[in-house]
Design brief:
The complex is a heterodimer of chains A (451) and B (289). In chain A, 43% of the residues lie in helices and 11% in strands. By secondary structure, chain A is of the alpha/beta class. The longest helix of chain A is centred in the C-terminal third of the chain and has 23 residues, at 413-435. Chain B is an all-alpha fold and 289 residues long. Chain B is built from 15 helices and 2 strands. Chain B has a two-stranded antiparallel sheet. In chain B, a hairpin with a 2-residue loop joins strand 1 (246-247) and strand 2 (250-251). Classes of the chains: A alpha/beta (451), B mainly alpha (289). At the A-B interface, helix 1, helix 2, helix 3 and helix 12 of A face helix 4, helix 6, helix 12 and strand 1 of B.
Chain lengths: 451, 289
């Protein structure tokens, strides 16, 4: 054992002296992003710039290393591409304690704020200051099995609201064996266990766990009403919703079999489908989300990442120059769409004809343009370190509401509302008690219930 | 022995061995799956559960198996070689230092008479009931204050004197080192350190073997700790580096399996080498008290 310690120690000593190829380092968490950046970083390093080392690391690993670095004032990567749940960890204290560099003045001085899609800045704006360049917009559309729906002669263009959707597609709902289908068929893929989907639909309605200004408001009326309606989709013998898990082989199988006809489809999800269920090419289409009410918002938002610069960086200017190259260049924005189906938040690139090209996977639709048309309308999201806890609390509340409604045989949305209200109030108290422990966020706990 | 008694013994034997067989299958199958998966292609991983059927020996298509994943692991930019060295260094150093310190502290607690000995024992017992997750935040603060974040020492130092180890060696000393031998050595003029190193430690050998494995494994499998304490990519151990091959939206299963295999092998070898000590160590003073 002593020999092992000595030999490995010597190995580390020798290896530890190697030099990094880059003077700056960057972390990213998503393999598709990484693949897009590799040539860009190579090109950057070949030019007259401060060279950069890029690392692909797991999200949970990044969470811990980021927080550890920020709290302990030890160096992290210089440039960090962080998903919303990771980046928001940095927003737990006062402004001056945020581990990312405040980019507001640079963004304003260089006119970058004007070219970015305004709602896409909200998750990275804390205390009125912007701490990251948005990577994406992530508008959400409704993906549907066009082959099945169109074969039944249903005109999806005539659908404006969720109620319209369920009414129009109701004839296609069937049990295994009925109507020639080998599986149970439902209209919509959404379930009480899917916190992301629930959040997406609440945001579409103008609700969500937090107000646009970051106040906790889980039990406000809009959430109560929308949760009750969502739960009504999931209960009873004639429920219209089912569970098709994303990112799982089981879910992919169910998609191919047509277990659900409609899915929430943020732009990045198009890429996940393209990679994981290639056999559905030409059988799927997207359309704007049905609104909650006539004339209502036809999109929402799901996910999001930013590029931030750590305060511990050795060279802020070099990191800033690299960040701009990576996130603002048209070349990379187009590559992001070409390889990852992700629409850039940089509005001046939206006119590029690439976004008008028909997409064979989506039955020849010009889906890039369709997503861009919805981009300015994506809902705002507050930057808060508690959004993951709040999202989980809302999901639990939805789950409890569904169980209670199912047990009591209550299937009508209006009758489910009192249960939803009680459960959301519980969730509000639960998250509020968590936030109230934080002196810097205590004020963000609203009374709740009042719009 | 009557025929009935022999029959009953045979039935018990069969039943016990049948149960052991089932348990062995439960233990071996995942390991077998891991080993086979490490040699599958990316496509093969999703296509078949164990080995691909074919016209080869035993009806298996052996040509489908590949060492690509292992090669990718070592040739790619994952840094698995360095991660392996880090894991070995962290685990071996902690095991050696931890065992020495715990053995010394346990011996002192059991065999020496000094002021505050009772308080020391109570302190050790009290420390035993503190759940480790509760210590993460204060440890982090201490490491920050001492400037030990992002250093190997930041991981090793807090792990070299666990209360569990001190208590284990205290019990082992009471069980295995007779006080008459200590007294005799003292009369012969041996000092405390000499008695510990020359007389007590060899008598505690089974516990030393067991504790080395326990400490080595604890550090080898430490996943949260390195993520909190270490920042530099080149200092990360295998547990973290292998996990990092899984990213959002995509998991490279082939690479993950190959990495897991590489991380499991050294521990298996260590266990095979020290298994006799490990088992006798656990079966001795530790459990009898």
């Amino acid at each position: 054992m002593i020999a092992l310690a000595l030999i490995s120690g010597a190995w580390i000593l020798v290896d530890g002296s190697r030099e990094h190829s880059g003077e700056l380092s960057m972390w990213t968490f998503a393999e598709p992003h990484y693949a897009i950046y590799v040539p860009a970083v190579k090109e950057w390093n070949a030019g007259q710039h401060v060279p950069v080392d890029m690392h692909l690391i797991g999200r949970q690993v990044m969470d811990r290393r980021l927080l550890g670095g920020f709290l302990g004032s030890v160096p992290t990567a210089d440039v960090i591409e962080a998903e919303r749940s990771t980046a928001s960890l940095a927003f737990a204290g006062p402004l001056e304690a945020v581990g990312f560099v405040d980019l507001t003045d640079r963004l304003r001085a260089e006119g970058i704020l004007d070219v970015l899609n305004p709602p896409s800045l909200s998750p990275w704006t804390y205390g009125g200051r912007v701490f990251g360049i948005p990577h994406d917009v992530h508008p959400v559309m409704l993906g549907y099995r066009a082959d099945i729906v169109e074969a039944a002669g249903i005109d999806m263009d005539s659908i404006e609201t969720w109620d319209d959707l369920f009414e129009a597609l109701r004839p296609l709902q069937s049990k295994a064996g009925d109507g020639g289908s080998g599986v149970d068929r439902y209209i919509m893929s959404i379930w009480d266990s899917e916190s992301d989907m629930i959040e997406t639909l609440l945001l579409q309605a103008g609700g969500g766990a937090f107000t646009d200004t970051g106040e906790l408001a889980i039990d406000r009326d809009v959430n109560v009403e929308k949760v009750a309606r969502m739960v009504s989709w999931m209960v009873g013998p004639d429920r219209v919703a089912t569970h098709v898990p994303e990112f799982s082989p089981t879910g992919d199988r169910l998609k191919v079999e047509g277990h659900a006809l409609c899915y929430l489809m943020p732009d990045w999800m198009c890429n996940v489908w393209r990679r994981n269920v290639p056999t559905l090419e030409g059988k799927v289409k997207v359309m704007p989300l049905p609104a909650w009410e006539p004339g209502g918002r036809r999109t929402s938002v799901w996910g999001g990442s930013m590029l931030g610069i750590a305060k511990t960086t050795k060279d802020i200017d070099a990191a800033w120059a690299f960040a701009k190259h990576l996130y603002l260049s048209e070349e990379l924005a187009l590559e992001l769409y070409r390889v990852g189906d992700i629409v850039t938040p940089v509005r001046e690139h939206w006119d590029n004809p690439l976004f008008d090209e028909p997409d064979a996977y989506f039955s020849g639709q010009r889906k890039g343009r369709m997503y861009i048309d919805l981009a300015p309308d994506v809902p705002l999201r507050a930057a808060t370190p508690y959004f993951t806890q709040a999202r989980a609390a809302v999901q639990n509340a939805v789950s409890r509401t569904r169980t209670e409604a199912e047990k009591a045989g209550i299937y009508d949305a209006k009758s489910i509302e009192p249960i939803a209200r009680r459960q959301l109030e519980l969730a509000q108290r639960e998250v509020a008690s968590l936030i109230e422990r934080n002196a810097f966020h205590r004020d963000s706990v609203a009374k709740g219930g009042d719009e | 022995m009557s025929a009935g008694s022999r029959k009953s013994k045979a039935t018990t034997f069969i039943l016990v061995h049948a149960m052991l067989l089932v348990v062995s299958v439960v233990v071996v199958v995942p390991l077998l799956y891991l080993v086979i998966s490490a040699f599958k292609t990316e496509q093969g991983f999703l296509e078949y559960l164990f080995l691909p059927k074919g016209d080869g020996f035993l009806g298996i298509d052996w040509n489908e198996l590949t060492t690509d994943q292992i090669e990718r692991l070592f040739k790619g930019d994952i840094g698995i070689g360095r991660a392996l060295a880090n894991s070995i260094f962290l685990s071996a150093t902690t095991a050696v230092l931890g065992t020495l310190i715990c053995a010394a502290a346990g011996y002192a607690s059991a065999a020496l008479r000094f002021r505050g000995r009772k308080s020391f024992e109570w302190l050790v017992l009290a420390a035993l009931i503190i759940p480790p997750p509760l210590l993460i935040a204060p440890s982090y603060q201490w490491l920050h204050t001492l400037g030990l974040l992002d250093s190997y020492a930041g991981l090793i130092l807090p792990a070299i004197a666990p209360a569990f180890g001190v208590y284990l060696f205290r019990q082992a000393t009471l069980q295995s080192v007779p006080s008459s031998i200590i007294e005799a050595a003292r009369i012969d003029g041996a000092g405390d350190f000499q008695i510990f190193a020359v007389i007590a430690l060899p008598m505690l050998r089974p516990m030393v073997g067991a504790f080395i494995i326990i400490t080595f494994l604890a550090m080898w499998n430490n996943f949260i700790g390195p993520q909190i304490v270490l920042q530099s990519a080149e200092k990360q151990p295998l547990s973290v580096v292998i996990y990092q091959t899984q990213t959002a939206y995509y998991s490279d299963y082939g690479l993950l399996m190959a990495g897991t295999l590489v991380s499991v092998l050294p521990v298996m070898i260590l266990f095979l080498v020290l298994q006799r000590d490990f088992i006798s160590g656990l079966a001795s003073g530790a459990v009898k008290g």
